[in-house]
Amino acid sequence: MDHTVTTRRATTAEFEAALPLLERFFAEEGFQAPPGQIRRQLVGLLDDDGSAVFLAWLKEQPVGVATVTTTSGLELGLSAELEDLYVLPEARLIGVGGALIEAVKDWCRARGCTLVSVVVTPEGQAAHNLLDYYRGRGFVETGRVLLFAHLEPREPEQPNRGIERRKDTR
Question: Domains plus CATH for the chain?
Fold first, then answer.
């Protein structure tokens, strides 16, 4: 059987190839996303020059997806995060994930990124031993710990809210 994997950056025309892979990834891993969020976020990633979506193909079949975003800061300059990596179960263990990671790294290098990071959740580690997987592909632990503060959306501003009314002092 031919297991030649090809990868390429997805275009907006390939939205329908990427979406079911990302939806399946979220469902299989138990990630919570409000209805429509994956679809909306994917549209944004495909249209954002600072982000990319990569698809892996076996022949004409999409079998894997990776998403990457970039950020700029004082310490690291331009850096990237490999946010999502998913390979269909039937296409695992033939190099699809590694090919997607290399495509992400090549894109990051071409953009001038100083590094690409990946977050491994406790659930991902327990289910897939992701620390060893990513270590085998050049990622190293730095000892840093990520902390998250989830933000609630702001309520829409009400007209005249926060505006004091002046008394007529004539």
Answer: 5-135 (3.40.630.30)
**Residue appearing with tokens 């031993």:** 129
**What is the pLDDT tens value at each position of the chain, 170 positions in all?**
678 999 999 999 999 999 999 999 999 999 989 989 999 999 999 999 999 999 999 999 999 999 999 999 999 999 999 999 999 999 999 999 999 999 999 999 999 999 999 999 999 999 999 999 999 999 999 999 999 999 998 888 766 655 554 555 55
Range list of H helices, 12-62: 15-29, 37-47
Q: Helix, strand, coil: what percent of the chain each, to 5?
A: 35, 25, 40
- Taking the C-alpha atoms of residue 105 and residue 84, their distance in angstroms, rounded to an integer, is 14
| Residue 101 CA: distances (Å) to CA of 17, 82, 127 | 18, 8, 20
